[in-house]
Structure formats: C-alpha cells, structure tokens
Amino acid sequence: xxxxxxxxxxxxxxxxxxxxxxxxxxxxxxxxxxxxxxxxxxxxxxxxxxxxxxxxxxxxxxxxxxxxxxxxxxxxxxxxxxxxxxxxxxxxxxxxxxxxxxxxxxxxxxxxxxxxxxxxxxxxxxxxxxxxxxxxxxxxxxxxxxxxxxxxxxxxxxxxxxxxxxxxxxxxxxxxxxxxxxxxxxxxxxxxxxxxxxxxxxxxxxxxxxxxxxxxxxxxxxxxxxxxxxxxxxxxxxxxxxxxxxxxxxxxxxxxxxxxxxxxxxxxxxxxxxxxxxxxxxxxxxxxxxxxxxxxxxxxxxxxxxxxxxxxxxxxxxxxxxxxxxxxxxxxxxxxxxxxxxxxxxxxxxxxxxxxxxxxxxxxxxxxxxxxxxxx
Length: 376
Prior knowledge:
By secondary structure, this protein is α+β, with helices and mostly antiparallel strands. It has helices at residues 2-10, 24-44, 73-81, 105-118, 140-148, 162-172, 196-202, 210-237, 353-361; strands at residues 94-96, 102-104, 137-138, 150-152, 159-161, 177-179, 190-192, 243-254, 262-265, 269-271, 274-282, 297-303, 311-319, 332-336, 346-347, 365-373.
C-alpha cells in the first residue's frame, strides 16, 4: 500500500511547473493512475486524511490498540487478585471459597464474626456459598503472586516487590522517618533518614545543662514507671502461697430477648478448691453489635461455691497456649463472699477490634485464667 501512495505522490505536478509541458497522453495517464489508486484505497479500507469522513464510506477494520494502552499488566492483576470484599490486595493470608473467590484474612475473619453475631451461616459475598474455616482454604499461589507485585514505598515513592518492601522501608530507604539519637534525653525531632546526620550535628540537646536534662529525664522515668508497675505486680503475685490457673473455654449463647445479643459462658471449673464460672459479652450487650465496626469483649468472674469467710483474690486472663490473639496482661481484684460472688464486667484487654473478630470467628474462645488468693 505504501508503494501505491508513493506512486501517487510521484505523479503529482510540482509547484511552478506548467502542465503545458506534459503531453495530453501523459496527463490523461496520470489522471487515470490517481483515480485508480483512490479506488484501490476505498476497496481495502484505507482512511483518508481530511476534516470530515465521508458518511457513505463503508465500515473500516478495527484499528489494533498498541500494547500497553489497555492498562499495564500489574493493574490488570490487581483487579484479578484483589479481595472480593474490600477490593484491596491482601497483605497476608488469602482465603478462597469453594468456588474460588478470594478474601483477605481480615475480611474473612470479619465475615465469620458477623455470622456469629447474627447466628447465620457465613456466605461468600460473591456466590453466596457457605464459608467457614473448614470449608475455605488458603490460596498459596495467589499469596506468592501478590508478594511479587510491585508496590510504592510510602516514603520515597519508588516501586518495589511487596515481598521486599518491609525490609526497604525499615533499613534501606533514605526517606524513611527516623528519630534523633538524643531522643533518650528528650529530643523530639523526627524526619527523613538522609537529614539525620545534619540534624544530629546541630541538635541542641547535648549542650543542655544538667538541670534541664534532669527535668526531661524525670518525665520519661514516670512513663517508664507506669509500664513497669504492671509487671512488678505480676512478679509479686507469683510469690503468693495459693495460686491456681486453668484453661477455660467460652461457648456462645443467645439471650431470649434479642437473638443478636450474643454472650459467652464457660462450664464450671475448679480453682483453689472453689467452683467458678466465667461469662463474657460483646460490646457490653449492645442491641445490634453486628452493626458496629468497633468490637469489644468484657468478662465477669463468678464464684459458685459457698464460702465461710471473704475470699480476696486477684485474677487475670491471658491467651491460651494454642491461640494467636494478642492480650495485654491486666490484673483485677475482688473480694468474694456469699453476698458478693460476682465481679463487675471488666474489659478483656485485647488490642483492637481485629483481635476481637478473631475470637468471635472461632467456634469457642480458649483462654487461660490465673487466680491468686491474697494472703491475710
């Protein structure tokens, strides 16, 4: 086709030349050639350049889109490998239903927790098939593929494979946020890593007087003292003569007044020669906890035995030996008697709603209870 176009250009009359120099036969032959080329162009569907296409022109072949205009490969993979619930790429484990729809670990646990609160069978949001920890499995191929996809560093905005991003942000990135080495004596500076040497060379904290530093260190000591008070209390309790602990299993139950009001209760167990029961509730017995994004658990310790004298105890709940929930130790105190055999509901010190969903998604909640009888 290009040779025909070149031939068409070759027969065009140069500007300034006179057609009189051409014979009548040559002009006629040139006109026939131009007409023939135009007809051939129309037959094969070459689009003519011009301001407006001919409305009677026959349909042309679809022009092939150059590679890359329909979206980069990474962008297309994002839509294929993303979670069907939050529509984001999974950051850890990837689960799939029996029909292959993908869910990130957070959304999968959240769906199971919601089904527990509503007393319904959890279903896949795409195909509505049943999902559970037994019916769903992890997709290791998708997890590996997601870890190799590029992602952007939040500090330097460069792209790295997801598998190496964490190490880059912690150790290599020159724009990562860091703190001054004189933070231990009160310097509040935070900034990019590449500016750290210049700041530390000009930092004023090393030149502060002893009196100024004593005031700063005093405030830091108070904060550290509060953190250590809990652990010192635990060490003191371990010195008590009467210490008991047991594994407890909370089982879910429903209230009679409202079906979505979920609570948990353990079977009776024996510690320190006394019979006890633990109860727990979600969001302090909120009417519709399934409609709330914030989830909490609180528990109550109940003494079922009859006692002759007051039984003063300290107690705390920790995660069980086979659970991965994060619980911060917190010690509670109560004096048990026949009249005051129940503690108030106290918070289960889990870190956030994600940890609470982990507990709710499980069939039962397994924790470890410690009871220390205070010496008289």
